[in-house]
Amino acid sequence: SYELTQPPSVSVSPGQTASITCSGDKLGDDYAYWYQQKPGQSPVLLIYQDAKRPSGIPERFSGSNSGNTATLTISGTQAMDEADYYCQAWDSSTVVFGGGTKLTVL
Amino acid sequence: EVQLVESGGGLVKPGGSLRLSCAASGFTFSSYSMNWVRQAPGKGLEWVSSISSSSNSIYYADSVKGRFTISRDNAKNSLYLQMNSLRAEDTAVYYCARDRGVTPDAFDIWGQGTMVTVSS
Fold it and tell me: What pLDDT does A9 receive?
């Protein structure tokens, strides 16, 4: 079965750029999606179709996808960005989520 | 306001059954594919099942195939998940989520989730 691999944790200082990767076989051939989930809350869509932001998502969130790796980039990271981040892709007609990355802003 | 509200969670014994519901409002429910996604305590997201707008296409994760059944009633703007032969490993928060696209795409609207606990 298809798998997406994310680093379990990423740390970043406030104001700096955080990058969270998501690896999967030929992931760049399909779209990647990103979600943010804060403790006790439902996931929120951050990025769809590799690099598009839904209405209301700040410009500091951006995405890219090429080869075997999709990347979520958070520019000018803020304390409020501390959360779990999940990548997602479609494998035929089923959905695969990455294991999630806990972003710590310190 | 676009909204999804899940209900029906609770405590059930192993081998038991439970039916989850998801009430949609604020959008044309019949135009969207819908999904169930679960999250075990302290764990990541796991896709469970999807159903197309007209119920023509239905898919399940291998972990629930043969035990869970997804369905919808477009007249009632509602999505359902019938869960049978429940196991301890089915314990999770269950979210319903809307697929934003005509073709499989991102999940742009999520409910608040309903907790299912399978324990004796």
Answer: 98
